[in-house]
């Protein structure tokens, strides 16, 4: 039987979070290093500004820094200013790990905001688990992870595919071709898609993965023509999204008959490719720039005022923004005392914030976030028309597609089916 979080809190209060999980006692022995010094709170900002995923990660960096600037302009947190330490991991997982170690050990940041790809998150995870620090990860991801040292604010599969795949089957047909970039996220998301298709009577007519940064899709497009899927299910990321869409259109394929349905194509990639190359294709995500809410209007206006009127927001820059405010609320809850990663983590559990997409909440059981799934159709102006959206926020279920697996306060547990 899983330990409930209230019991877990009793354990950590009695013995210290680091001790109870067998982590090195860096924040216990050197607790003074974790506290704000000279009226500042150091946080790391770890998004790629160069390399193949910079096309999207730059916007995460910008949204994160904008939130920090807003918080500081309003007086900081309990009178203390946030001091961001910015590093560029250059879209390389090994560099991510190196920079993460610097931010945790060298700069002594009490939290780090970072990563787009699951490959980079997996690369830094050993650093945060070894030193009992806290990583805030804003990207939609494959689930199947349950780390005490990560706050997950992006969508997991049940918050993207649960409604999307049945909708695609109903509106376009049962034959799917799965195309993704060659790393863990696309493969795991496509595995979930295959599980759903099997349950719903769908069919996979092809599955292929291309290297990160891949730009030559002629052979893939020929396979689209040969297999004639009803839906091209895309988990391609970064610059490759632009190349895929442009070559799809150049080949004369018709989105009305064979649309690309993506979990990863946002306003950012569309801005890079041009709206005419995206029109008629679909994306499932909790946030679109076109969403009509006071919080979103404020977010978009502030972002464009700071970075340029032609800039776009997207479904990963939005959580990169709101997770900084969740961090702020967690630190405020501590009242300026015990500003260590373990204490910030405990204070973050259950925090709610009115984000641009709607009210979000960090699940106190699994450190993932309640979100608002939507389905958008790309328009020629580069924006998405929201054609489906939930009426109530959706609970995060990291192991949703895998029976008998559940994320608990102490990690992933096997349960009886």
Description:
The structure is a single chain. It contains 15 helices and 17 strands. The protein has 417 residues and is α/β, with parallel strands linked by helices. The protein has 2 domains: 5-155 and 292-372, Response regulator (Rossmann fold); 161-262, Rossmann fold (3-Layer(aba) Sandwich), CATH 3.40.50.2300. Helix 5 (54-73) runs parallel beside helix 14, helix 11 packs across helix 12 (267-273) and helix 14 (317-334) packs across helix 15 (341-348). The chain is globular, with a radius of gyration of 21 Å.
Q: What name does CATH use for the topology of the largest domain?
A: Rossmann fold
Q: What is the strand content?
A: 15-25%
Radius of gyration: 21 Å
Strand arrangement across the biggest beta sheet: 7-6-8-9-10-14-15
How does the SSE layout of this entry go?
Layout (H helix, E strand, L loop, with lengths): L4 H11 L1 H4 L5 H4 L1 H4 L5 E7 L7 H20 L7 E7 L5 H14 L4 E4 L3 H13 L4 E3 L12 E3 L8 H11 L3 E7 L2 H17 L2 E8 L7 H10 L3 E5 L3 H12 L9 E3 L4 H7 L8 E4 L8 H14 L9 H18 L6 H8 L3 E4 L2 E5 L6 E2 L3 E5 L5 E6 L15 E4 L2 E4 L3
Parallel strand pairs: 1-2, 1-3, 3-4, 4-5, 6-7, 6-8, 8-9, 9-10
Antiparallel strand pairs: 10-14, 11-12, 12-13, 14-15, 16-17
Which features does this protein show?
417 residues, Rossmann fold, 2 domains, 7-stranded mixed β-sheet, 5-stranded parallel β-sheet, 15 helices, 40% helix, globular
Provide a concise account of the structure shown.
This protein has 417 residues and is an alpha/beta fold.
């Amino acid at each position: 039987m899983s330990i409930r979080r209230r019991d877990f809190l009793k354990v950590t209060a009695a013995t210290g979070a680091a001790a109870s999980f067998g982590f090195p006692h860096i924040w216990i022995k050197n607790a003074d290093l974790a506290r704000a010094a000279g009226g500042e709170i150091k946080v790391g900002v770890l998004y790629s500004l160069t390399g193949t995923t910079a096309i999207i990660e730059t916007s995460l960096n910008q949204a994160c820094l904008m939130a920090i600037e807003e918080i500081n302009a309003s007086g900081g947190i309990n009178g203390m200013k946030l001091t961001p330490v910015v590093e560029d991991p250059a879209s390389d997982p090994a560099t991510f790990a190196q920079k993460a170690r610097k931010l945790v050990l060298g700069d002594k940041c009490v939290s780090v905001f970072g990563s787009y790809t699951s490959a980079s998150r997996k690369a830094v995870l050993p650093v945060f688990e070894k030193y009992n620090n806290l990583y805030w990860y804003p990207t939609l991801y494959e689930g199947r992870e349950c780390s005490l040292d990560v706050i997950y604010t992006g969508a997991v599969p049940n918050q993207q595919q649960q409604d999307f795949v049945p909708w695609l089957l109903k509106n376009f047909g049962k034959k799917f071709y799965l195309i993704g970039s060659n790393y863990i996220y696309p493969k795991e998301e496509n595995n979930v898609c295959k599980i759903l298709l099997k349950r719903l009577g769908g069919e996979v007519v092809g599955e292929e993965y291309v290297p990160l940064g891949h730009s030559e899709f002629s052979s893939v497009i020929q396979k689209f023509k040969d297999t004639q899927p009803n839906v091209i299910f895309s988990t391609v990321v970064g610059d490759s999204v632009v190349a895929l869409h442009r070559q799809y259109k150049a080949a004369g394929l018709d989105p009305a008959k064979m649309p690309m349905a993506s979990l990863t194509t946002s306003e950012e990639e569309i801005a890079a490719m041009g709206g005419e190359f995206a029109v008629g294709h679909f994306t499932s995500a909790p946030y679109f720039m076109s969403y009509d809410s006071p919080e979103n209007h404020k977010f978009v206006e502030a972002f464009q005022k700071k970075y340029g009127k032609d800039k776009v927001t997207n479904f990963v820059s939005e959580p990169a923004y709101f997770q900084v405010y969740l961090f702020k609320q967690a630190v405020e809850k501590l009242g300026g005392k015990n500003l260590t990663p373990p204490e910030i983590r405990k204070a973050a559990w259950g925090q709610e914030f009115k984000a641009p997409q709607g009210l979000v909440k960090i699940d106190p059981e699994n450190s993932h976030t309640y979100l608002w799934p939507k389905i958008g159709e790309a328009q020629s102006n580069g924006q998405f028309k929201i054609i489906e959206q939930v009426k109530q926020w959706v609970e995060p279920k990291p192991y949703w597609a895998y029976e008998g697996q559940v994320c608990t306060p102490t990690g992933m547990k096997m349960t009886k089916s």
